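# step 3/5: fold
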Amino acid sequence: MRTSPPFRADHVGSLLRPPALLRARETLTGDALREAEDEAIREVVRRQEEIGLQSATDGEFRRASWHMDFIYRLGGIGQATDEHITVRFHNEQGDIEFTPAALRVHERIRLNEPIFADDFTFLRDTVTKVVPKLTIPSPSMVHYRGGPAAIDPAVYPDVEEFWRDLSAAYAEQVRRIGALGCTYLQFDDTSLAYLNDPAQRAELSSRGDDAEHMHLRYIRQINAALAAKPAGMTITTHMCRGNFRSSWAASGGYDHVAEALFSELKVDGFFLEYDDERSGGFEPLRFVPPGKMVVLGLVTTKRGELESKDTLKRRIDEAAKFVDLDQICLSPQCGFSSTVEGNQLTTDEQFAKLRLIVETAQEVWG
């Protein structure tokens, strides 16, 4: 078993909000709401430790969504009150939409204060025997969600200045969070998975982006954000094709981005969605260099049925044909509750899946 992250049994970050917390979000504000969140986080950390995980998150219990809560707090970025982003998701029953407020880059981007600092320090002081893990959206998500139209040309007549400021703000976030004792940070990034879908690339091309090469830009900017990461900090990235109320937004294997992604992105590990055929095969893993970890998201968070250990072990064996078994870990394919609404399974089913991951990892890696 590994003693540093990512761990053989790990998870992406978000967890189903307990009913009491959902009620509190509807009726409480300020200190009263934070006390309810504190209580729920203490309990969910206890449960993560109890089932044998080596890291724990706060379940993202203080957020409405995995990414927009962070992005709106970057200096220079605000909500467009009269406009919404529409993201269409798919499931077996049809389509649904996620419609957060659109974002606008109306001033130079900066970090006014470390984002989620109080959230992390509470988690840090709550865990008793595991590594506290913080998840934040990657810088790519600021651009992918809004595109060129979200950037005021009067503020950034040269788009290169936008990218420099964005990466600099993230670099400062990484430094400030590291100073608080964070040793396990995850950049969540759906864009690098979405870009494998020709339909998604067509959407980006229609708004004026160079969709065929956009992943190269995103990799470059993430690397700039990580160039001065604190010593002793592990940084991973998580990539999936959308996760909203048990629905998905994109399809396609990792082939379009794999060579550049795995060989050039300067993270320590990759959390990869691999729970169904939409993710393609394991062949792209041949580009993962020695020393980098691959966390296979073989367990779905979109439904409650429990996977078979034998099936998980067989798929790990299949992946090991393309990347060394010692570089592989196991996790769910995404969070269980990327937004406050959560996926369509129960809390007991959620923890059964996490326990399955722990047990399977113990049997595979000892």
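# step 4/5: annotate
The chain has a mean pLDDT of 96.
# step 5/5: archive (pending)
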